[in-house]
Design a protein that fits this description.
The chain is α/β, with parallel strands linked by helices. Helices cover about 45% and strands about 15% of the residues. The chain has helices at about 25-35, 55-70, 85-95, 115-125, 135-155, 170-190, 205-215, 230-245, 250, 280-290, 300-310, 330-335; strands spanning about 20-25, 40-45, 75-80, 100-105, 125-130, 160, 195-200, 220-225, 265, 320-325. β7 (about 195-200), α7 and β8 (about 220-225) form a beta-alpha-beta unit. The longest helix has 21 residues, at about 135-155. It binds pyridoxal-5'-phosphate. Pyridoxal-5'-phosphate binds next to α3, β7 and α7.
Length: about 350
């Protein structure tokens, strides 16, 4: 089947695609040695989608930035937490495309030198405005509008990208990933029943859930929440898909949104967004040592830890294969290095 079930809008090719699908066999062997009978765990390496702009956001931004360019935009405005991977990817790609970038960030940067994502934001020359978290939460739409109008009055052509690039445009990014997975599953000869990923602003889940249906992957997508609750995500994912159908009525009519089932697990958020327990840091260390797979404390390690807990509990063992989407986040780990503990290094005599 070479014919595509979807007609895609314009996209700027920015990510290194397709990303590899790899089995985590040493992890599987380690779990089996504990006496557990688990499905084979595969990882879709979306952390390899780019170097500085790595992770899931670049897939969505390929479409958001194409829409921005089509509208003659010269200035990107977007928003997120201080260590937002999405803001960092936008800062890098904006610089790559010669666009000015203005980031509205939630939180106080403090007096330390910037680390992780924030360091790269600054390195790429993004303009940054930091807001007190409560004020940010209360007035984000007004803040975005304010800066949009500000640039317009200066004669510039601003384009606002919402949190996480999760809207009807960004949805295409993970539809495109579902299309890749169809080819991955065929060439690996697997038919995974479950796909797991971290969910934060909903756009990844919207694209994957719709794509799994449209490309007939025969799998159930589980969004592992890193913030908010189940009903928030059920609403947000549907809202993104409704926006997608509203913007592209011809291309999207084949998806019956009423019939689409969504699965969200919000049991592994822990103490809150971006706050990771010792168990999460242990998962990061285990996967790094066993597989050379680097997870992050905000998104992927929480989702991976949750998936393993569910598999251990026997909830998803009615299948031979499960797939974890590695959505990136490495630079967020570098901003939380204090959560990791190592033996003190000493000089070695010759
Ligand atoms: C943003 C992000 C997610 C969540 O994706 P959404 O589309 O916002 O739900 C997951 N993992 C990482 C590393 C992210 O940066």
């Amino acid at each position: 089947m070479t014919e595509d079930v979807l007609e895609y809008p314009e996209r700027i090719s920015l990510a290194q695609l397709p990303t590899p699908l790899l089995p985590l066999d040493r992890l599987g062997a380690a779990l089996r040695s504990e006496g557990l009978r688990l499905p084979r765990i595969w990882v879709k390496r979306d952390d390899l989608s780019h170097c500085a702009a790595s992770g899931n956001k670049i897939r969505k931004l390929e479409f958001s930035l194409a829409a921005a360019r089509a509208g003659g935009c010269d200035t990107l405005i977007t928003c997120g937490g201080l260590q937002s991977n999405h803001c960092r990817a936008t800062a890098v790609l904006g610089a790559q495309l010669g666009l000015q970038v203005h980031l509205l960030l939630r939180g106080d940067p403090g007096i330390d030198v910037p680390r992780g994502n924030l360091l790269l934001d600054q390195l790429c020359g993004a303009r940054i405005s930091c807001y007190e978290p409560h004020a940010y939460q209360q007035s984000l739409p007004q803040l975005l509008q304010y800066w949009h109008d500000h640039y317009q009055q200066q004669g510039r052509r601003p384009f606002v990208i919402p949190t996480g690039a999760s809207d009807g445009i960004g949805v295409w990014g993970y539809l495109n990933c579902a299309r890749e997975l169809r080819a991955d599953f065929r060439s690996a000869g697997i038919a995974p029943a479950y796909i797991f990923h971290a969910t934060g602003s909903g756009g990844t889940q919207a694209g994957l859930s719709a794509g799994t249906r449209l490309y007939q992957l025969g799998a159930q997508v589980w969004g592992m929440a890193v913030c908010d609750n189940e009903s928030y995500f059920l609403n947000k994912v549907r809202a993104d898909l409704r926006d997608w159908q509203r913007r592209y009525p011809q291309q999207t009519a084949s998806l019956d949104l009423e019939q689409l089932e969504l699965q969200v697990n919000a049991d592994y958020i822990g103490a809150g967004y971006a706050i990771a327990s010792e168990a999460i840091f242990n998962t990061i260390q285990q996967l790094a040592e066993l597989e050379g797979l680097i997870l992050d404390p905000v998104y992927t390690a929480k989702a991976f830890h949750g998936m393993l807990c569910e598999l251990r509990a026997g909830r998803f063992n009615d299948t031979g294969d499960v797939v974890f989407i590695h959505t990136g986040g490495l630079f967020g780990l570098l901003a939380q290095q204090d959560g990791l503990s190592f033996n003190r290094l000493q000089m070695t005599s010759v």
